[in-house]
Amino acid sequence: SLYDEMAPRAAQLATFTAFFKSQGYRTSACLPGNYRSDLGADPYARDVVLDVPALAYDGPRYGYVGIPDQFSLRAYRSRVLATETAPHLAFYLSISTHIPWPVIPFEGGPEWPAIEGAARIVTPSHAAYFHTVEYQWRTLLECIEQESGDDAVFLLVGDHQPMLDGTTPMD
Protein backbone atom coordinates (compact mmCIF):
# COMPACT_ATOMS: atom_id res chain seq x y z
CA SER A 1 0.00 0.00 0.00
CA LEU A 2 1.02 3.62 -0.30
CA TYR A 3 1.14 3.83 3.50
CA ASP A 4 3.53 0.89 3.71
CA GLU A 5 5.71 2.49 1.06
CA MET A 6 5.77 5.96 2.62
CA ALA A 7 5.85 5.22 6.37
CA PRO A 8 9.53 4.19 6.50
CA ARG A 9 10.48 7.43 4.74
CA ALA A 10 8.62 9.69 7.16
CA ALA A 11 11.58 9.91 9.54
CA GLN A 12 13.76 11.19 6.66
CA LEU A 13 11.39 13.97 5.61
CA ALA A 14 11.23 17.49 6.98
CA THR A 15 7.94 17.63 8.88
CA PHE A 16 6.14 20.02 11.19
CA THR A 17 6.36 17.37 13.89
CA ALA A 18 10.15 16.98 13.60
CA PHE A 19 10.68 20.74 13.56
CA PHE A 20 8.51 21.38 16.61
CA LYS A 21 10.08 18.48 18.51
CA SER A 22 13.53 19.95 17.78
CA GLN A 23 12.32 23.21 19.37
CA GLY A 24 11.28 21.46 22.60
CA TYR A 25 7.58 21.01 21.87
CA ARG A 26 5.58 17.96 22.86
CA THR A 27 3.67 16.49 19.93
CA SER A 28 0.44 14.54 19.67
CA ALA A 29 -2.17 13.43 17.18
CA CYS A 30 -5.80 12.41 17.28
CA LEU A 31 -6.60 10.05 14.41
CA PRO A 32 -10.28 9.08 14.66
CA GLY A 33 -10.07 7.24 11.34
CA ASN A 34 -7.26 4.91 12.43
CA TYR A 35 -8.72 1.62 13.62
CA ARG A 36 -5.41 -0.20 13.47
CA SER A 37 -3.20 0.18 16.50
CA ASP A 38 -1.15 -2.70 15.09
CA LEU A 39 0.49 -0.59 12.37
CA GLY A 40 3.56 -0.25 14.53
CA ALA A 41 5.33 2.85 15.72
CA ASP A 42 4.05 6.24 14.67
CA PRO A 43 6.23 7.23 11.68
CA TYR A 44 6.28 10.83 12.91
CA ALA A 45 7.40 9.78 16.42
CA ARG A 46 4.72 11.88 18.13
CA ASP A 47 4.68 11.70 21.90
CA VAL A 48 0.99 10.72 22.10
CA VAL A 49 -1.40 9.28 19.50
CA LEU A 50 -5.11 8.77 20.12
CA ASP A 51 -6.62 6.36 17.60
CA VAL A 52 -10.03 4.70 17.49
CA PRO A 53 -9.29 2.10 20.20
CA ALA A 54 -7.87 4.81 22.48
CA LEU A 55 -10.86 7.10 21.89
CA ALA A 56 -13.25 4.31 23.01
CA TYR A 57 -16.29 5.92 21.41
CA ASP A 58 -19.48 3.99 22.15
CA GLY A 59 -22.14 6.33 20.77
CA PRO A 60 -24.19 6.11 17.57
CA ARG A 61 -22.23 5.48 14.39
CA TYR A 62 -21.84 8.51 12.11
CA GLY A 63 -20.53 8.64 8.58
CA TYR A 64 -17.52 6.96 7.06
CA VAL A 65 -15.57 6.22 10.21
CA GLY A 66 -18.33 6.27 12.77
CA ILE A 67 -17.02 8.82 15.28
CA PRO A 68 -18.24 12.43 15.11
CA ASP A 69 -15.45 15.02 15.16
CA GLN A 70 -17.01 16.87 18.07
CA PHE A 71 -16.56 13.79 20.28
CA SER A 72 -12.99 13.17 19.07
CA LEU A 73 -11.86 16.78 19.56
CA ARG A 74 -13.41 17.01 23.01
CA ALA A 75 -11.79 13.71 24.04
CA TYR A 76 -8.44 14.84 22.62
CA ARG A 77 -8.61 18.13 24.43
CA SER A 78 -9.59 16.61 27.79
CA ARG A 79 -7.29 13.57 27.71
CA VAL A 80 -4.20 15.03 26.06
CA LEU A 81 -4.17 18.78 25.62
CA ALA A 82 -5.56 19.65 29.06
CA THR A 83 -2.70 17.81 30.73
CA GLU A 84 0.07 19.49 28.73
CA THR A 85 2.14 22.22 30.33
CA ALA A 86 4.94 22.34 27.75
CA PRO A 87 4.59 24.03 24.37
CA HIS A 88 2.60 21.65 22.20
CA LEU A 89 1.97 20.77 18.56
CA ALA A 90 -1.40 19.06 18.22
CA PHE A 91 -2.44 17.33 14.99
CA TYR A 92 -6.09 16.48 14.42
CA LEU A 93 -7.39 14.62 11.38
CA SER A 94 -11.04 15.59 10.88
CA ILE A 95 -13.27 12.98 9.30
CA SER A 96 -16.89 14.11 9.60
CA THR A 97 -16.92 15.69 6.14
CA HIS A 98 -15.97 12.39 4.51
CA ILE A 99 -18.67 10.75 2.39
CA PRO A 100 -21.33 9.58 3.29
CA TRP A 101 -22.57 12.82 4.85
CA PRO A 102 -24.94 12.00 7.67
CA VAL A 103 -26.73 14.61 9.72
CA ILE A 104 -24.55 14.97 12.79
CA PRO A 105 -26.03 16.87 15.70
CA PHE A 106 -23.79 19.65 17.01
CA GLU A 107 -24.11 19.67 20.77
CA GLY A 108 -24.03 23.03 22.49
CA GLY A 109 -22.93 26.41 21.27
CA PRO A 110 -24.94 29.36 19.99
CA GLU A 111 -27.38 29.16 17.11
CA TRP A 112 -25.81 30.26 13.86
CA PRO A 113 -27.42 32.63 11.40
CA ALA A 114 -28.38 31.21 8.02
CA ILE A 115 -25.45 31.08 5.62
CA GLU A 116 -25.94 33.25 2.55
CA GLY A 117 -26.57 31.16 -0.55
CA ALA A 118 -27.55 28.00 1.33
CA ALA A 119 -31.06 28.12 -0.11
CA ARG A 120 -29.63 27.69 -3.63
CA ILE A 121 -28.30 24.22 -2.83
CA VAL A 122 -30.76 21.93 -4.54
CA THR A 123 -29.25 18.45 -4.89
CA PRO A 124 -29.45 16.12 -1.89
CA SER A 125 -25.74 15.27 -2.03
CA HIS A 126 -24.72 18.94 -2.13
CA ALA A 127 -27.07 19.76 0.75
CA ALA A 128 -25.78 16.85 2.84
CA TYR A 129 -22.18 17.88 2.20
CA PHE A 130 -22.98 21.51 3.04
CA HIS A 131 -24.46 20.49 6.41
CA THR A 132 -21.43 18.37 7.35
CA VAL A 133 -19.11 21.27 6.44
CA GLU A 134 -21.20 23.56 8.64
CA TYR A 135 -20.96 20.99 11.45
CA GLN A 136 -17.20 20.73 10.88
CA TRP A 137 -16.66 24.49 11.09
CA ARG A 138 -18.75 24.75 14.25
CA THR A 139 -16.74 21.93 15.83
CA LEU A 140 -13.39 23.47 14.87
CA LEU A 141 -14.43 26.95 15.98
CA GLU A 142 -15.61 25.60 19.33
CA CYS A 143 -12.16 24.11 19.86
CA ILE A 144 -10.31 27.23 18.68
CA GLU A 145 -12.40 29.50 20.90
CA GLN A 146 -11.76 27.34 23.95
CA GLU A 147 -8.08 26.60 23.29
CA SER A 148 -6.94 29.97 21.99
CA GLY A 149 -4.51 32.06 23.94
CA ASP A 150 -1.95 34.73 23.24
CA ASP A 151 0.53 32.19 21.91
CA ALA A 152 -1.86 29.80 20.12
CA VAL A 153 -1.57 29.24 16.38
CA PHE A 154 -4.09 27.21 14.38
CA LEU A 155 -3.40 25.93 10.87
CA LEU A 156 -6.40 24.42 9.06
CA VAL A 157 -5.60 22.52 5.87
CA GLY A 158 -7.93 20.63 3.55
CA ASP A 159 -6.74 17.77 1.41
CA HIS A 160 -9.31 17.56 -1.40
CA GLN A 161 -12.78 18.48 -2.60
CA PRO A 162 -15.52 15.85 -2.34
CA MET A 163 -16.69 13.75 -5.26
CA LEU A 164 -20.35 14.74 -5.10
CA ASP A 165 -21.49 12.92 -8.21
CA GLY A 166 -18.93 10.13 -7.98
CA THR A 167 -16.74 11.42 -10.83
CA THR A 168 -15.81 15.07 -10.38
CA PRO A 169 -14.83 17.21 -7.40
CA MET A 170 -17.29 19.82 -6.18
CA ASP A 171 -16.48 23.32 -7.45
Explain how this protein is built.
It is built from five helices and three strands; from the N terminus they run H-H-E-E-H-H-E-H. It has 171 residues and is of the alpha/beta class. The model has no long low-confidence stretch (mean pLDDT 81).
Key features?
5 helices, alpha/beta, globular, 171 residues, 3 strands
Order of helices and strands: HHEEHHEH
Q: Biggest sheet, in brief?
A: 3 strands, parallel
| Number of alpha- plus pi-helical segments | 5
Average residue-wise pLDDT: 81
Order of neighbouring strands in the sheet with most strands: 2-1-3
Topology readout:
Layout: H1 2-6, H2 16-22, E1 26-30, E2 48-50, H3 52-55, H4 69-79, E3 88-92, H5 124-147
Parallel strand pairs: 1-2, 1-3
Short description:
With about 170 residues, the chain is α/β, with parallel strands linked by helices. The chain is about 30% helix and about 10% strand.
